[in-house]
Amino acid sequence: MSITDLHWMTAHELADLLAAGDVSSVDIAEAVIARTEDVEPKLDAFLTRTDDRLRADAKASDERRRNGETRSRFDGVPIGYKDVFVTKGIQSTSGSRILEGFIPPYDATVVDRGTAAGLPLHGKLNMDEFAMGSSGENSGFKVTRNPWDLERVPGGSSSGPAAAVAAGVVPWAWGTDTGGSVRQPAALTGVVGVKPTYGRISRFGMIAFASSLDQAGPFTRSVKDAAALIEIVAGGDRNDSTCLPESAPDLLSGIDAGIDGMRIGLIKEVENAEGIAPGVRSRVDEAYARLEKLGATLEEVSLPSFEHGISAYYLVAPAECSANLARFDGVRYGLRVDADDIVSMMSKTRDAGFGDEVKRRIMLGTYALSAGYYDAYYGKAQKVRTLIMRDLERAYESVDVIASPTAPTTAFRLGEKTDDPLAMYLNDVFTVPYPLAGNGAVSVPCGTSADDGLPVGLQLAAAALDEPTLFRAAYAFEQDLAWAGTPESRPSI
Length: 493
Description:
This protein has 493 residues and is an alpha/beta fold. The protein has 16 helices and eleven strands. Helices cover 38% and strands 12% of the residues. The chain has an eleven-stranded mixed sheet, sandwiched between helices. Helix 10 packs across helix 13. The longest helix has 21 residues, at 375-395. It is globular, with a radius of gyration of 21 Å.
């Protein structure tokens, strides 16, 4: 790949060029800004462009490199952030009109640690409002499009980060995954997306949707980039009591050890499920065969509770969202619609500021938590969550990794499912169980569907805190497939 293709390079490739002195961080910044100028009018991946900040950060990185003071191997490699992460002095909206104009006084831990590693900031990226959505169509501001087909969705809720990385706008970006919001859009746009173990990465400064489920996750063009980005930001944080105190894991060491002898579970209930598109099924079956060829053994595992995952998720997550979003009242920050009294002001502000999907989930959650219904709905959902955890614990006694499709279909058309919330929710049927259990999972591209030429994702999931095994499996598959980095892996936008 020539240096003129800087915008398509992985973070590792760019870091190597910087270390060799073949390019400067300013060169990279100008390349991604030019790419953004070219495709953003068609893509709508950004909510806030920060070109001046990117140029300033890149210039500072070059100065550090000249002085031998680089902050990390990736000092000077640009990064984008889903707009759910607050950024000091830069508007942070979580994709909602109710936070339009909100300028935070501090950085989220993910942003702060990225800056400490020398990663220049390349803008705030679009998302479904408060991370509620599976298509990117619920943003309060604009609809992001899939770079593989501009008439199709990029997935959600991390629509902007997925589309931006897939389109060559930025080499890597941070999203969040509550029920599949990193993995599902990664699958639909042909990039790598990871949901780490819950608590692996601090949630401080992430605008909350469902606090027991939300977790930051990277979008990258390679498995090694995803491992490196998690290493940069993971580790204990005194600002987040749910963040695990362990230091950042070493995920790159041993990533290339291969999977000979690894036991990979295929979920009986998923393999027999209806609704998986033929083009997705064939690509995933080929992926299973490739894993077996690499020395892994495939074993059937039964996870009977998985069929209840969507039902449990859409009680637990809305219940937590109804509590978290009560803070948006028009009193302290964001949108305020004036009225004669404070109750009317709050009501009118929320009516004007929240979109339809957010209102739907607030009402679902409030109902599930209300007197007389708590035990019947929320309480039972939590019991199902426990059953999912136990089913996975039993499965990991006999297998090291569990494999499945990431999403049942490739990217669907814009507007195709907006009038059918249940059909939209079912896009996350294979991703939802893992955040309910807190386990880590990755979506890695496994080619394109023969039916429509759109990307298909293979999901791999490991036991809690076993990201090293997860990345070993994903890397072995990626290297053998040899699809990442080829012209076929890039959209023609």
